[in-house]
Specification:
This protein is an alpha/beta fold. It is built from eight helices and five strands, in the order βααβαααβαβαβα. The chain is globular and about 40 Å long.
Length: 136
Amino acid sequence: MKRAVVDPSVLVSAFIGNPDAGPGQLVAAWREHRFVLVVSPQLLAELGEVLARPKFVRWSSDDRDVAYVAAFAAQSEHHPDPDDAGGHVRDPDDDYLVALARAAKVDAIVSLDNDLLDASLDGIAVMDPFRLLADL
C-alpha cells in the first residue's frame, strides 16, 4: 500500500473545498484506506493552527476543525518530527515535510505548492492529489 506525506495545505483545501476536487477526493481515498497517511506532531500542529485561523471560522464551527485533525491523528501512521538541517526546497517552512518523508521512507509527498512540486528530491516523488489518486 502506498504511503504518503500530505502537505497540510492540501488537507485544508479538502476541509473547506469541494469534495469532488482533488484534495477532497484524496481525503476520501484516505478514509477508504486506499493509502497510508504519514504524519508527525509538527504536521498535525500546523493543520490545527491553520484551521483555527479566523478566516476559517465558517467551516470550523462546532469544533469541526478539532474533529478533523483528531481523525488524522487517530488513523494515520505517526513518526516523530525529524531532526534535519533543511535546505531541501525553496520555502524553508516546507523542509520538515521533506525530512519527514525521508525519515518515514514514504512513496510520495502530496502537495499543491510549487515550492514542493518543482523540487528535485532524490528518491521521493512529489505530486499533486490527482497524480496520487491515479497511482492508487
